[in-house]
Amino acid sequence: MYFCGMKEERITYLEQQLKLSMERERAQFEQNGLLSAQIVQLNQQLNLLTIQTGELTQTIASLQEALLQKNKDVSSLSGKNRGLAKLLNNSSEKQTPEETEVPPDNVQEKKPFSAKERGNNGAKRKIHINLEEEIVDIWPQDPEFDREKASELKVVESIRYAYLPSRVIKKIIRQHNCVFNNKLYTVSAPRTPLMNSNYEASFIAGLLQFKYTYSMPVERIVKLFNENGFELEKATAHSLISKTAALLECFDDVLRKAIHTDPYIRMDETYHQ
């Protein structure tokens, strides 16, 4: 009986060990599947990066070709300029045109005013390359016109400038707090310059710009915001300006102390001796 009990305990122990080994094999199989999926994803990313590298290499090669062509054009123009300079310096090659007298009766007629004529002494228009661009395509609207079958001749570009009033955007920041693997993950909204305030630094900077750069009274600033669709209270504007001024005073004190403690001081690009 004693030996039979020992055999049963041995069999039970072996069965438990077999179950544990099967569970380990199952977990290892799942882990191998996850690793295989990650390897496939990394291979896809590597292929995308390879394609992007090839495109960038082609772009760099085209830019190099354009640069070489530009250098050739510059060298040819320099040679032409040197040849013209030699011709101008050679007194034997100079020719003086014969002066023709204009009779007093021959008075040049004044051209009529043209609406398309350029003013400002023929100065070129400013192209404003720093502005946001919006491209609008206009096609013929005739009912007999078929855009797919038509052949385009030429694209004529006309430039118009539009002004959009200042906008105030309402940002709704949703903070998603989650639990993952029995661990709590929390997030918080970005901080504002003033505690418990709904106004970001860009809004306060706009108020200060109107107040101190353009010398606008607070009443006009509030009216401007109200006309653009944002109801701003006068007390709120005063509070934002005054509290920001207090913050800037603290910053001014800290900056002054930092400058005074610095052994190497420069001002207006003049070295301090």
N-to-C CA distance: 104 Å
Q: Specify Rg, calculated over alpha carbons.
A: 39 Å
Structural class: mainly alpha
Q: Strand content of the residues, in percent?
A: under 5%
The 3D shape can be described as extended
Total count of strands: 4
Largest sheet composition: 2 strands, antiparallel
Spans of at least 5 consecutive residues whose pLDDT stays below 50 are: none
**Average predicted confidence as pLDDT:** 83
* Individual helix count: 4
Helix content: 40-55%
Element order, helices and strands? HEEHHHEE
Main sheet: strand order = 1-2
What can you tell me about this protein's structure?
- The structure is a single chain.
- The chain has 4 helices and 4 strands; from the N terminus they run H-E-E-H-H-H-E-E.
- It is mainly alpha-helical and 273 residues long.
- Strands 1-2 form a two-stranded antiparallel sheet.
